[in-house]
């Protein structure tokens, strides 16, 4: 990926890491632009958002509050790792599911 693509998509990529509202805003900003760097980060954050919702409404109920808090903490750390990657202009995949997120949301 060239430096110009990274610089053009960096703002959108950073916004995508700031809550689920930021992800939605970044998705709207990305519409029509098709910047591959921004799209990479949006796909990662959509995946984390879905896992976060599943954790909040299902996993915590099934496995208990302590497990839910532990998963929420891991998701927060993954979000920070992704944000640092976006700031540095790197495509850092989320551990464990990053490849799956790229495959599942490849149309973004």
Written description of the protein model:
The protein is mainly α. It has one domain. It has helices at residues 3-16, 19-30, 36-63, 65-88, 98-104. α1 runs parallel beside α3 and α3 (36-63) crosses α5. The two termini are 17 Å apart. The model has no long low-confidence stretch (mean pLDDT 91).
Name its key features:
elongated, mainly alpha, 108 residues
What is the distance, rounded to the nearest whole angstrom, between the alpha carbons of the first and last residues?
Answer: 17 Å
Helix content: over 70%
Report strand %.
Answer: under 5%
SSE arrangement, N to C? HHHHH
* Continuous helix count: 5
Question: Assembly type of the shown chains?
Answer: single chain
| Main β-sheet description | none
Structural class: mainly alpha
Shape, principal axes of CA atoms: elongated
Output mean pLDDT. Answer: 91
Q: Tell me the domain tally.
A: 1
Number of strand elements = 0
Low-pLDDT sequence parts = none
**Radius of gyration, in angstroms, nearest whole number:** 14 Å
């Amino acid at each position: 990926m060239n430096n110009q693509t990274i610089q053009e998509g960096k703002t959108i990529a950073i916004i995508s890491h700031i809550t689920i509202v930021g992800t939605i805003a970044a998705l709207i900003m990305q519409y029509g632009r098709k910047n591959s760097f921004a799209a990479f980060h949006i796909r990662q954050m959509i995946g984390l958002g879905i896992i976060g919702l599943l954790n909040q409404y299902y996993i915590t109920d099934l496995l208990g509050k302590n497990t839910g808090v532990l998963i929420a903490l891991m998701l927060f750390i993954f979000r920070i790792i992704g944000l640092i990657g976006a700031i540095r202009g790197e495509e850092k995949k989320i551990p464990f599911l990053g490849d799956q997120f790229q495959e599942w949301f490849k149309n973004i």
